[in-house]
Structure formats: C-alpha cells, structure tokens
C-alpha cells in the first residue's frame, strides 16, 4: 500500500527530488497532508540548484512563503506573529522545535550552500551533520504538535459568569491539580477565542494551539476551579507586548472576570 502511494506521488511530481520531499507524507493525517502541501514551496521542494541566492535572499524567500505565520493578522492589526527564531518551526513540514532548528540554520548560513535550508538539512549536503549543541536525535525527537482546527476544540476555554470552563466538556478549568505540576499556557486568537493547555517543552508550546498562526496575546496562567488566580504575558514564541497584554486584560474584564485578587506578573 505504501509502495503504491509512493508510485502515485512519483507520477504526480515526475522527479526524484520532489518525491523525496513528499515521501514523508505517507503516514500523516489528511490535515497534515494539506498543511505540508501549503508549506512545500517554502521548504524542500522549492529547490533550484541553478539559481544563485545569497543567504539574505534565501531567508527573505522563506519568510515570504511562511504565510501561515501571519494567519489572523487581518482581524487584529496589533496581533503577534511568531518570533523570528520560531519561523523555521512553522514552515518546517515536521514542525521541529524552532530553537533546535536554529543551530542547524546557523550552520547552513555559514556553509554558503546554494541548497534551500530544509533540502540541505534533510536530503542534501547537510544531512550527515550532527551538531554537539543539538544532536540529530534531539532535533528529530522534539517536534511541536500543531493542532488542526478540530484538534484545538478540546483546548478551547470560555468564560461564563467570570469563571473559566472548557467549551466542549463544560468542566471548570483547574491548573493546580494534585500531581499536575508544570506550566499552563494560553493564547487568545485574533477572533477572541481562548485556548489553554499544559506546556510540554519540545512538544506542546504556544505555537501549538493555532498551528503557528498569529495571536492577540499569549502567556501563562493559574486557574483554580474556574477562578483566575494569576496571569502573565510570557511566551518565547510570540513575545507579547504590553499593549497585547492590556488587550487580554480588556477581554477578561468584558467577560466579567474579577481581577481584584489576580496576580498580574
């Protein structure tokens, strides 16, 4: 079955170079398949070895192709896109952790290779490179989960009578459960939908909720049985501004959240 799928891909793209780019899709879900297709021109398959590019122009092209990073900006001009460090993560079909990718990106820049970064990294001249600061095993293991539109519904939180509860289950949000140590993170979409989940370094981060799309605000919070106890605008992926945080506070006030005893850090 897998061989048949590969043959179909080969017939569709006619070249082994593009086949290598798409072979990784075989075991992905349909949503991931569509996501990958959207990113293909900004990663491995946008490969023209005859075309000379400077490091600056290559990075500029990658940024231009990463339209998904700006999803939602039209709804909120003050929204935050992913920080530059994590753009690579968003346009990587595997969504490997941006911090790790940057070690290899720096190596690629210094190599002055004419191959696009992701082609260089996975198939081309850089495929055998194994950096001490970030071994290949770690690079491949730490992939950020990007939620599909259906997948993020389980993380959507609404505010009713000033208390936080999951929209799907109706259960109150509670981040301080016994044995539930760790940081709980949130993002507010540009459509003013709130998503909350437990952070898992190297696998589930702020960028997970909206699949790398823009946010109105992102940060951390503490909620006990639906009651907000603390909130702060800390996100390495989005780096929210003071203005973004004020917008989130306004969102809370509009939803009758009592902020009198909330720690704002």
From TrEMBL:
Organism phylogeny: Eukaryota, Viridiplantae, Streptophyta, Embryophyta, Tracheophyta
**The gene coding this protein:** 11439467
GO CC annotations, alphabetized: cytoplasm; nucleus
Keyword list (alphabetical) reads: Cytoplasm, Nucleus
- Keyword Cytoplasm present in the record's keywords: the answer is yes
The subcellular localization recorded is:
Cytoplasm; Nucleus
**Which top-level group of life is the source organism from?**
Eukaryota
Transcription in keyword set: no
Please give the name of this protein.
Calmodulin-binding family protein
């Amino acid at each position: 079955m897998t061989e048949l799928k590969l043959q179909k891909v080969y017939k569709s793209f006619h070249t082994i170079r593009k086949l290598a780019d798409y072979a990784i899709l075989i075991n992905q879900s349909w949503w991931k398949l569509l996501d990958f297709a959207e990113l293909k021109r900004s990663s491995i398959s946008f490969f023209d070895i005859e075309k000379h590019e400077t490091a600056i122009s290559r990075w500029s092209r990658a940024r231009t192709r990463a339209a998904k990073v700006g999803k939602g900006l039209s709804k909120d001009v003050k929204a935050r896109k992913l920080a530059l460090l994590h753009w690579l993560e968003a346009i990587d079909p595997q969504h490997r952790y941006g911090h790790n990718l940057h070690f290899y990106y720096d190596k690629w820049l210094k190599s002055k290779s004419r191959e696009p970064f992701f082609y260089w990294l996975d198939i081309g001249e850089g495929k055998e490179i194994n950096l001490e600061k970030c071994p290949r095993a770690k690079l491949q293991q730490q992939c950020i989960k990007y939620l599909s539109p259906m997948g993020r519904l389980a993380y959507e939180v609404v505010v009713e009578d000033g208390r936080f509860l999951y929209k799907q289950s109706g259960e109150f949000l509670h981040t301080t459960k016994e044995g539930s140590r760790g940081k709980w993170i949130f993002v507010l979409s540009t459509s003013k939908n709130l998503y909350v989940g437990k952070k898992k370094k190297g696998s589930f981060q702020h960028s997970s909720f909206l699949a790398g799309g823009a946010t109105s605000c992102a940060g951390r919070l503490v909620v006990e049985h639906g009651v907000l106890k603390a909130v702060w605008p800390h996100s390495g992926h989005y780096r929210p501004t003071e203005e973004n945080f004020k917008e989130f506070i306004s969102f809370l006030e509009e939803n009758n959240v009592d902020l009198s005893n909330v720690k704002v850090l």
